[in-house]
């Protein structure tokens, strides 16, 4: 009899665990479906935010360590030759601000631009961009170049409509506070297939960029396509998402040319 009871207890415990796991899985699936349909607000997304944030943080910590190591390398003839073009870019962007995530933050980390020309944060998405908007308003630049979307691919579970809505809210906040500032929108960079294979949501880059082009057309904002710059040799970091340092001079030149600075 004791053995029978023990067996029953084990079976019941297994069933309870199975039900809990199944329930959690259904909850995640439900949130994904609701968000794709546009039927949930940001509070629903926040329940899944931690899950995506862990992966983003681990990747970006590795990138940050790599940048720090590069910055500590001793000067060579090659790095000395780069000093003049870098100084020129810092001057050209002295009255401008580039806003974005970890890809943008590298402009400051690699010392391509001064900190007063970069308002960026690792792992940032448009649902949490308010502090960065306030910082940009404080700087009161002539030009703002916005570059968001990489983290929104995961955070918004592949919902380009919600992405466009949040982006437009951010743009309008800046326009209301800085009516004389010209705003430019950078497209999301292409992501390598190996990264998409790990996280299929990264495959929505084209749909998100199409939403950005639609927004820019509707609001009369210049759209900057940098995808061609990612065709340079050995341009991607190991994660297949972030660009290596030699991408950034080309990006700055592309933005500067678009703005005529």
UniProtKB/TrEMBL annotation:
Listed Pfam families: Lipase_GDSL_2 (PF13472)
Limits of the SGNH hydrolase-type esterase domain: 119-245
UniProt xrefs under InterPro entries: Ester_Hydrolysis_Enzymes, SGNH_hydro, SGNH_hydro_sf
GO molecular function, one term: phosphatidylcholine lysophospholipase activity
Protein name: SGNH hydrolase-type esterase domain-containing protein
Presence of the UniProt keyword Transmembrane in the record: yes
Bias-annotated ranges (Low complexity): 68-84
Residue spans crossing the bilayer: 12-31
